[in-house]
From TrEMBL, chains A, B:
Matches recorded under SUPFAM superfamilies: PhoU-like (SSF109755)
Keywords recorded for this protein, A-Z: Cytoplasm, Phosphate transport, Transport
Family stated for the protein in its record: Belongs to the PhoU family.
GO biological process, one term: intracellular phosphate ion homeostasis
Descriptive protein name: Phosphate-specific transport system accessory protein PhoU
One annotated Gene Ontology cellular component of this protein: cytoplasm
Binding partners and assembly: Homodimer.
InterPro entries named among the record's database cross-references: PhoU, PhoU-like_sf, PhoU_dom
Function: Plays a role in the regulation of phosphate uptake.
């Protein structure tokens, strides 16, 4: 039976990791929005900064994983406390991958900005990027407030993002057919859209972990109906 | 201090999870190889079976995650034991994503088989798929034997896979430029190649977790030199 002293230590450490994890979430959301912004404005310095800053995200992944494992080793949490730490460990992985996708977007952006491509569907990319940033922020907010009520909504947004991605792909195919010389650059744009779509998946993952954390039920692979059920106020 | 009784229970449970995890690894490797095989032979029944069987992979992900969390809650492992459980938790996620990619390959394969596409670079796709299956099996084997010595090699294979992917992409761009009507189908092939390339990333992740498990050092993001160092026999 842990002493009250131990419990307090656990809570303090947990709170500190939770705070850093939310900061990491803020950082990767910012990385994405900077990459998309720079793609529109052609600002190469920002592109390079996004690529460079992915290192910070990677370092944070390693440090936070360490902190979570140390927390388990020191305090042997069970039940809700353990679910909370497990949720954080899963979230760290997803947030790091969001950082990776932002870096890939910046790298593809570098190719595009340097060339004379004029057909980049900037409006659509900005629109879908704004959607996944919103999803990510709502998922992080759900984690911060331990409130899974947005999860079904986020899953619905994810379906919408998939549909927009398909629309962008069709548009790019039209461009490529009209002028096959554009194919190489169009594929850079396609991979950017694909990265944004994947970030939507990661945001959905995070929101599903929050359901698990709060409700103790694993709703991955169970569809929007299960999320609807679990996200209702009890 | 846990009793001997508790320790034995822990070891038995750990061994059972370890075995199931290796079976899950075998299953997803098989999913990939069936998807690629069916793409070559045009066997639509296998394509559908791969898509259907992804459900088993998802169920196994949820069940194994549960088992790991229960193991921690019951026994409060520390040090090497805890690292082992953490490694397994990370591996479960990567293996599930390998299953997802195999399913995506099968779905893209369904589009291609149904059409009259003749330019699919079957030899290259089979070659690169065989490479990532080898990487995956070596990584699983490293986990089974708790032997990180293959990790630098696997990281090198991953670089080779990336290079082959770029080659396939260039080849597809040539096809698309020659006959823009092929663009839609060529993109299906491109996404298949991309999925295979991602499976290589997952295999590399698994092999890096094994280094962490055995050496206690987190070598993600540190490059091949760190893997070389840690994979040397001590």
């Amino acid at each position: 039976m842990p002493s009250k002293h131990t419990l307090t230590h656990f809570d303090t450490e947990l709170e500190s990791i939770r705070k850093r994890l939310l900061e990491m979430g803020g950082l990767v959301a910012q990385q994405l929005s900077r990459a998309i912004e720079a793609l529109s404005s052609g600002d190469m310095a920002t592109i390079e900064a996004v690529i460079e800053d992915d290192r910070r995200v990677n370092e944070e992944e390693v440090a936070l994983d360490d902190a979570c494992i140390l927390l388990i080793a020191r305090h042997g949490p069970t039940a809700g406390d353990l679910r909370m730490v497990m949720t954080m460990i899963q979230m760290i992985t997803d947030l790091e991958r969001v950082g990776d996708e932002a870096k890939k977007i910046a790298k593809a952006g570098r190719q595009i900005i340097g060339s004379d491509v004029v057909f980049v569907p900037k409006v659509e990319l900005r629109h879908v990027a704004a959607m996944v940033i919103d999803m990510l922020q709502r998922a992080l907010d759900a984690f911060a407030r331990m409130d899974p009520s947005s999860s079904a909504d986020i899953a619905r947004q994810d379906k919408e993002v998939d549909a927009i991605f398909k629309g962008i792909m069709r548009q790019l195919i039209t461009y490529m057919m009209e002028d096959p010389r554009l194919i190489t650059r169009a594929l850079d744009v396609l991979f950017i859209a694909k990265s944004i779509e994947r970030i939507g998946d990661h945001a959905k993952n995070v929101s599903e972990y929050v359901v698990y954390m709060v409700r103790g039920r694993d709703v991955r692979h169970e569809g929007i109906e299960a999320l609807e059920r679990e996200s209702r106020v009890r």
